Amino acid sequence: MRRYILAFFIGLFLLGCNSNIQQESTVQKFDKIVLEKEITPLTKTVEKPVFEFDQSTKTIHILVALCDNKYQGIVLVPAKIGNGQDPDNNLYWGTAYGIKTYFKRSKEWTLISSEKQSGEILERLVFKHKTSDYYLVADAYDGQYIKQTTQDFLANIHGQDKDTLNINNTTIGINGNANLVAYIGHDGLMDFELSETYKNTDGLTRSAIILACYSKSYFTSHLDQKTIQPLVWTTGLMAPEAYTIHDALSVYIKGQSNEEIQLAAANAYAKYQKCSVKAAKRLLVSGW
User: Fold this and answer.
1) Do 183 and 212 touch, CB atoms closer than 8 A?
2) Domain housing 97
3) Against a cut of 0.90, is the pTM above it?
4) Is residue 12 in some structural domain?
5) pLDDT tens across 151-206, in order?
6) Residue 104 domain-assigned (yes or no)
């Protein structure tokens, strides 16, 4: 088993004018323009964006923090698979047991979109399940932005950050609009602290899978226990490779129980890590 320890300041300008001066100065004219532009928004109601999507579809959104020898507190892996800026060869994305390669080879999923991105997310994949109306969106985050990946996961699972994606003339819900949100990678909470407090914003229940070392210990305090259902997370060190979440999702999509989802994950982990199912079940747990 591998070990991965890893302003706009709103200024209140005191605008003054001299009533004894008949002709306005250039500064006074500028002040009037600024004042008019600052007052106008105060009279308007800012509406929150509406994210409408096809309610007949369901979405699983996976956030992958690419393995990164340089920017993460992990036990070093070979340089080629530990470059967090190279998704094609990354341990958690492009290798045989990475999310991209493993799901592309799956008999249960069809890849319908693969796009390079810019910024923190380097690549986005969209899969369609072959026998149900489930979509799977997987984002490969640049490994140096593991903190942002963690923050995005927490915002999504609490419904704080919602979005949609149009794919083949179908609009699906992603981020906080997903039914299940998953995090894959090194447990960055072992290396840094988060100052933000995450609370559910819409009262909706979402399922979570967190495949990272000791994820139950480190993520619990950041999760709303009333609205988040942990399907699989961990009690110790682990290798967050794709087969575990793949087999867990196979059972989840069928609507089976949390115990059956946990068992599917444990069976897959035991098979590939060559450990006992009993040990895998102690590592991969479900619920609070």
Assistant:
1) yes
2) 58-233
3) no
4) no
5) 999 999 999 999 999 998 999 999 999 999 999 999 999 999 999 999 999 999 99
6) yes
